[in-house]
Specification:
Elements (H helix, E strand, L loop, with lengths): L2 H50 L8 H23 L2 H26 L9 H13 L6 H5 L14 H52 L3 H5 L7 H22 L1 H24 L6 H27 L10
Helix pairs in contact: 1-2, 1-3, 1-8, 3-4, 3-10, 6-8, 6-9, 9-10
Length: 315
């Protein structure tokens, strides 16, 4: 096979990676937006239902609030059943798995490390890519809608290029920033849930101690009971907790940070081994890098999909 033919074939595989990455990103955004919609509608439904129970309302305001609250809570059930299914999560998991699986073997092939260092390297790569793509044959419609980015196919003239473009880019450009992002998200949602619980507890204790309507405690001229708002805050806290649990922010932050640390150690080992560029030492470095990334990928995918079994992987 001519070198240009080999290059074109590898570029085709890289385009497959980019296309499935776009599919995975789109499916992830869809899940996130519908989860956020369910969160907001759950809180709004509880709020409007409580407002509709206020005897201080005049005219048809109570009826309007009741209708809005009912619509919000009904849409929660409709959206959850339609868009937040296990199949939706499975599609996202498989799309990301296919994308990352192809990316891994293309980088491995470009590094010229075993098993991609001999005359059968291109055949081995082709077999691996085809096997990976088989996992998404039933997702052809999603693949057809892909709009892949224009990221160039990786070219690795030497070992340093692999270390820079693969190991360091994953460690410093993805895992550490993502760990920080997930940790902050977990903290923010945790704080919101905590303070809603605190306010609900204070209102509940006040209602118990005073046995008085909210109107008398704030002078608002209304007789909404404090207990009504305790229920709203409790519902909001539960909705936020469910949203955070679905995002699995803490688990992802832990996995991402641990993977960055493992890649850092591999980088140090490569330096201490006098930066090998070929032979068994180089083969071992590349194998460790790709298996570390693959293990991370299987680990957080298992967490997201709810299997909690890294060996169940989706690559």
């Amino acid at each position: 096979m001519k070198p240009t033919d080999s290059q074109n074939l590898v570029e085709t595989f890289w385009q497959d990676h980019l296309a499935w990455s776009d599919v995975a990103d789109r499916l992830k955004r869809r899940l996130y937006h519908w989860r956020l919609a369910v969160l907001c509608l759950s809180i709004a439904g509880a709020l409007f239902q409580t407002l509709s129970a206020s005897p201080g309302l005049v005219g048809g305001a109570a009826w309007v609030f009741a209708i809005i609250g009912t619509v919000c809570l009904t849409l929660v059930a409709v959206f959850a059943k339609r868009y937040l299914t296990s199949k939706a999560t499975e599609y996202w998991v498989r799309a990301r798995s296919v994308s990352e699986g192809i990316k891994s073997v293309v980088f491995w092939y470009a590094s010229r490390a075993a098993p991609y260092g001999g005359p059968d390297a291109l055949k081995t790569l082709t077999d691996q890519v085809r096997s990976t793509l088989e996992a998404a044959e039933d997702m052809a419609l999603e693949r057809a809608k892909a709009q892949p980015s224009a990221d160039p196919t990786p070219t690795l003239p030497d070992a340093q290029a692999y270390i820079t473009q693969r190991l360091l880019k994953q460690k410093d450009g993805y895992y550490r920033p993502r760990a920080k992002e997930m940790a902050k998200a977990a903290e923010h949602y945790g704080n919101a849930e905590f303070w809603l619980a605190v306010v609900a507890a204070v209102l509940g204790a006040t209602a118990t101690a005073l046995h008085t309507p909210l109107a008398e405690s704030v002078g608002a001229g209304s007789d909404w009971l404090l207990g009504h708002w305790v229920a709203v805050l409790t519902t909001a806290g539960a909705a936020i907790a469910a949203h955070a649990a679905a995002g699995r922010f803490t688990a992802q932050a832990t996995i991402f940070l641990a993977t960055a640390a493992r890649l850092d150690r591999i980088h140090q080992d490569w330096i201490m081994a006098n930066r090998p560029e070929s032979g068994a030492p180089w083969d071992e470095i590349v194998r460790q890098v790709e298996e570390t990334i693959s293990a991370e990928h299987r680990g957080w995918m298992a967490k997201v999909s709810g299997t909690d079994d890294p060996d169940s992987g989706t690559e």
